[in-house]
Amino acid sequence: MKNTFCPVLRPALIGSLPMDDHQAATRLMFEYAPEIPLWVQLPVFREEGMIPQFLPGFPGIVNNAGRTYIDTAHATFDADVVAFYEEYLAVLEGKADLIPSRFALGLESAGGFFEFLRQAPDHAADLFAVKGQITGPFTFTTGLVDAADRVVFYDDQLRDIAVKLIAMKARWQARRLAELGKPVMIFFDEPGLTAFGSSSFISISREDVMACFDEVFEAVHAENALAGVHVCANAEWSVLLDSTADIVSFDAYSFFDKLLLYADSLKRFLQRGGVLAWGIVPTSDAEMIRNETVDSLAARWREQAGRLASLGIGRERINTQSLITPSCGTGSLDLDSARRVLELTTGLSRRLREVNREDSKKFAQ
Fold first, then answer.
1. Helix, strand, or coil here: 31?
2. CA-to-CA distance for 215 and 163, rounded, in angstroms?
């Protein structure tokens, strides 16, 4: 799928908010991100954690005394696996409907999704695109364990099931969000990718990781949607930049220098139409958030964009193929700090877009 999506410095958010009311959280999100809204995740609810939220539908799930794992020794596990693959193939081949399948998100674990669909029609005039999100395949398969506490990535069968589950849940989101009639972005949240290549996962190959991403991105592309990846710290960026991802979301506030080390991959990514989501508004520290302003962040972004341009990438391309975002979700912040993050993101985007329009007028003259 060729990416022709040009957000031109519009603001977008990362999914989580520190609230306990989906209706109010969705209204707050629309207040600050009406052009590219998303469905909100509220981590105050345990079932909206990164693994539990997308686990329903996986064979062999056990929840015992606060511990969740996959029990491959259960008497019904093999039959459950067969049923999983039968339903997967039936949906993939068009013999069964994706929407009511096991791959659907549920109200009990994704209330923000359904509240988003309820409120979105009231904001139809503002929509430029819509955003969904899901835990990425690496984080999901290294965060989920079997009965022996072994991460499922190391079990070929369990990894295959996990990746297919994530792929189809992403596809389900894309199909439902497409009902709003605007371009759809599905971001795969990958905090776990920061550990790839470390001693913890030294035996996991780049090829295996990229195969996981290829499968989930292909599922999103099958719905004519855009596949994004969000990593909130440092990572082996070439894995994502050299993949078929359409959008790479990174912490520009703290890790821009690390991304710049992958200059060749960055250039190829942008030249093929890839979009950078600049997480330039900090989210890790309340005092840091208070100390930043639209002016200070605009200066930081201009300096970073200039360094990217020095690699031989045109400023117009950079502006056209960029989103402005927080560096991560705000679910772990206090509400005042979270609101400040949203204000800075929207204000910074507005400022940069105004400058971009003025520059474009001067160039035209």
1. helix
2. 7
Residue listed under structure tokens 């949203």:
342
Structure-token pair, residue 330: 């705000």
First to last CA, the chain: 35
pLDDT tens string 303-336: 999 999 999 999 999 999 999 999 999 999 999 9
Name every residue whose Cβ is closer than 8 Å to that of residue 343 and which is 6 or more positions away in sequence: 32
Task: In whole angstroms, give the CA distance from residue 176 to residue 168.
Answer: 12
Closest CA to 171 of 105, 220, 214: 220
Q: Are 180 and 105 in contact (CB under 8 A)?
A: no
pLDDT in tens, 213-245: 999 999 999 999 999 999 988 899 999 999 999
DSSP 158-223: HHHHHHHHHHHHHHHHHHHHGGGSS-EEEEEE-GGGGGTTSGGGTT--HHHHHHHHHHHHHHHHTT
> Which residue, among 13, 11, 9, has the nearest Cα to 329 in the 3D structure?
13
Compute the distance between CA of residue 137 and CA of residue 275 in angstroms, rounded to an integer. 21
Cα distance between residue 180 and residue 46, in whole Å: 29
Cβ neighbors of 347 (< 8 A, separation 6 or more) are: 294
Query: Do 319 and 8 meet the contact criterion of CB atoms below 8 Å apart?
Result: yes
